[in-house]
Design goal:
Length: 234
């Protein structure tokens, strides 16, 4: 009985949160956070009265948690998203680089695990993530003004993204409502494969491949993440 009560005392209730900013990046992100209380040096029974001993007790307790995050990636056909995709395309892609592998035209799932250590409302800890997405068949034009100007491709693809980062944040709870502000930085490894079915070029003959031509587009890159999650206790 004593061990059972100890386990109950060491566990706090969890919460469910959603990241509203992810909607603008074509993803629904929901997290479940499970808390664990790690007790430090407790005051003796004779010291459990008075405000001073209560403050002391709180200072000697550390709260940790595991935040499980699931994301659902979906494509967008809205004019705004397509225009935004084109801006990214023009700014970041050179000579077809990743043309067509846009985050706005794919489907997929992502999972993340955050291990947090709390100091009152402030927390910090690492995050591990994996995302898998696939791209449907899409006709993609290259950038104008390049050596391959006029080339149009019919292609599809898929990508697996692995990442590690370190996050700091500030989380408050008021009347059961949770506000979680965070900042994170780290690196991600994207392992992508592009399948090319057909190429058309006004400077030369069209090419239709009997079997899809595959290209690997692997990349290691840093990331910076600033966001908010909103939710409630359960």
């Amino acid at each position: 009985m004593g061990n059972t009560n100890s386990k109950k005392d060491s566990t706090r209730q969890g919460n469910i949160k959603i990241n509203p900013i992810k909607f603008f990046f074509n993803e629904i992100s929901v997290s479940y956070e499970q808390f664990k209380k790690i007790s430090g040096i407790r005051p003796s029974a004779s010291d459990l009265t008075g405000i001073d001993s209560i403050i002391y007790k709180r200072k000697t307790e550390q709260i940790s948690s595991v935040n499980y995050i699931l994301g659902i990636v979906f494509p967008s056909n809205t004019d705004h998203a397509l225009a935004y995709k084109q801006d990214i395309h023009n700014a970041c892609i050179k000579e077809l680089g990743d043309a067509g592998l846009s985050p706005f035209i794919n489907w997929g799932l992502s999972t993340k695990f955050e291990f947090r250590r709390y100091r009152n409302t402030l927390y910090y800890g690492p995050q591990f993530m994996e995302k898998f997405v696939f791209y449907p068949k899409t006709t993609v034009d290259n950038l104008s003004g390049t050596e391959m100007d006029g080339l149009v491709r019919l292609q599809s693809g898929y990508a697996n993204v692995l990442g590690f980062g370190y996050f700091i944040g500030w989380q408050t709870e008021k009347k059961g409502f949770v506000t979680d502000l965070f900042l994170g930085a780290g690196c991600r490894l994207r392992l992508a494969v592009r399948k090319i079915y057909e190429e058309q070029n006004y400077l030369g003959p069209n090419v239709i491949f009997p079997e899809p031509k595959t290209e690997n587009l692997n990349r290691l890159y840093p990331f910076l993440n600033l966001g908010v999650r909103l939710g409630f206790n359960i």
